From TrEMBL:
<dbReference type="InterPro" id="IPR006239">
    <property type="entry name" value="DPNP"/>
</dbReference>
<keyword id="KW-0460">Magnesium</keyword>
<dbReference type="InterPro" id="IPR000760">
    <property type="entry name" value="Inositol_monophosphatase-like"/>
</dbReference>
<protein>
    <submittedName>
        <fullName>3'(2'),5'-bisphosphate nucleotidase</fullName>
        <ecNumber>3.1.3.7</ecNumber>
    </submittedName>
</protein>
<keyword id="KW-0378">Hydrolase</keyword>
<dbReference type="Pfam" id="PF00459">
    <property type="entry name" value="Inositol_P"/>
</dbReference>
<dbReference type="InterPro" id="IPR020550">
    <property type="entry name" value="Inositol_monophosphatase_CS"/>
</dbReference>
<comment type="similarity">
    <text>Belongs to the inositol monophosphatase superfamily.</text>
</comment>
<dbReference type="GO" id="GO:0008441">
    <property type="term" value="F:3'(2'),5'-bisphosphate nucleotidase activity"/>
</dbReference>
<keyword id="KW-0479">Metal-binding</keyword>
<dbReference type="InterPro" id="IPR051090">
    <property type="entry name" value="Inositol_monoP_superfamily"/>
</dbReference>
<dbReference type="InterPro" id="IPR020583">
    <property type="entry name" value="Inositol_monoP_metal-BS"/>
</dbReference>
Length: 322
């Protein structure tokens, strides 16, 4: 099968990173939030997860750039040596060759640029959810000529379809598969059918600053979804749509940050996992999300994710909403 090596390497790396995150959540009473320049949080688990995945990608595909969310500039500072020692300790539990020096280098392997073939990585998507004890995801995708070819979404805290921890894997043209946290295949997954009214619920962020709740609920109502939204951190929302547990995920620009542009690593893996499960993804104007340009999707506004059948109706409701 095409992309089989990429798929296997990505699954193994994402699961290893997800285990590191689980270990940090179990062993640290409250994982420390380190503040980034934009004042958003990052933790030793984000750094450890990025180190592990970048190490695996660099070993298997040395010429592929990785466009990751994090970098090691802060961790390299002398006053951060305790945190770096902790990151190294968690990485070593999975990758015994790790030293503080290799760990920062592995993390910075994720400073690559968008090119004709690259990986994009969110080592922890939903860091705020991770810190709160809620949902988070490890998200990894391979993009070629702007087209997502492989996507792995590991959601260690998600309980769905009888699984404690959900790993979804998609390869373009090959469908979306559900795996256990141990990497065992369970079944292929499909989005909800339009007759399945009970499952046509909608999902949105927990963080009110990451969307526009009032417009989101107005649009959901306009397309006949009357139940309250399910609020979930991270790309676990894409997993809910791919597995048919929700029919719609709306992420409309927040009135508090109208100039915010979505980042590729917050979407790439989720998009493929939903599309290969039969769903559809676009921005709020119906444009496809652009993964060919840079780490920010400059020309897209908002994100609409659906089971496919309701997508055009949602876009119409959006065009008509003030
Ligand atoms: N103003 C904003 N609008 C939309 N997304 C934002 C945002 N500020 C931060 N984010 C992104 O929202 C992501 C979390 O998504 P969600 O709200 O669905 O849980 C964050 O990912 P990280 O947690 O990886 O930093 C971050 O990239
Ligand atoms: Mg993210
Ligand atoms: Mg992140
Ligand atoms: Mg972040």
């Amino acid at each position: 099968m095409v992309y089989d090596t990429e798929k296997q390497v990505a699954i193994k790396a994402a699961i290893a990173a997800a285990k590191l995150c689980q270990q940090v959540r179990q062993q640290e009473i409250t994982p420390e939030a380190i503040q980034k320049k934009d004042r958003s949080p990052v933790t030793i688990a984000d750094f450890g997860a990025q180190a592990l995945i970048c190490q695996a990608l660099a070993a298997a595909f040395p010429s592929d750039p990785v466009v990751g969310e994090e970098d090691a500039a802060t961790l390299r500072q002398a006053e951060m040596s305790d945190q770096l020692a902790k990151v190294t300790q968690y990485v070593q539990a999975i990758e015994p060759t790790a030293t503080p020096e290799t760990v920062v280098d592995w993390i910075d392997h994720g400073n690559g640029q968008v090119t004709s073939r690259y990986w994009t990585l969110d080592p922890i998507d939903g860091t705020k959810g991770f810190l709160r004890g809620d949902q988070y995801a490890v998200a990894l995708a391979l993009i070629e000529a702007g087209d997502i070819k492989v996507g792995v979404l590991a959601c260690p805290a998600l309980e769905m379809s009888g699984q404690q921890g959900v790993v979804l894997v998609a390869v373009r043209g090959q469908g979306t598969e559900l795996l256990t946290m141990a990497g065992q295949p369970v079944k292929s997954v499909q989005v909800a059918s339009p007759e399945d009214k009970e499952r046509l619920r909608f999902v949105e962020s927990v963080e009110s600053g990451h969307g526009d709740q009032s417009q989101q609920s107005a649009v959901a109502k306009a397309v006949g979804i009357t139940a309250d939204s399910i609020r979930m951190d991270s790309q676990a929302k894409y997993a809910a749509v791919a597995m048919g547990e929700a029919g719609l995920y709306l992420r409309l620009p927040s009135p508090k940050s109208p100039d915010y542009r979505e980042k590729i690593w917050d979407h790439a893996a989720g998009v493929l996992v939903v599309e290969e499960a039969g769903g559809r993804v676009s921005d709020m104007n119906g444009k496809p999300l652009n993964f060919a340009q840079s780490d920010r999707m400059q020309d897209n506004r908002g994100v609409v994710v659906s089971n496919g059948t309701i997508h055009d109706t949602v876009l119409k409701a959006l065009a008509a909403s003030p």
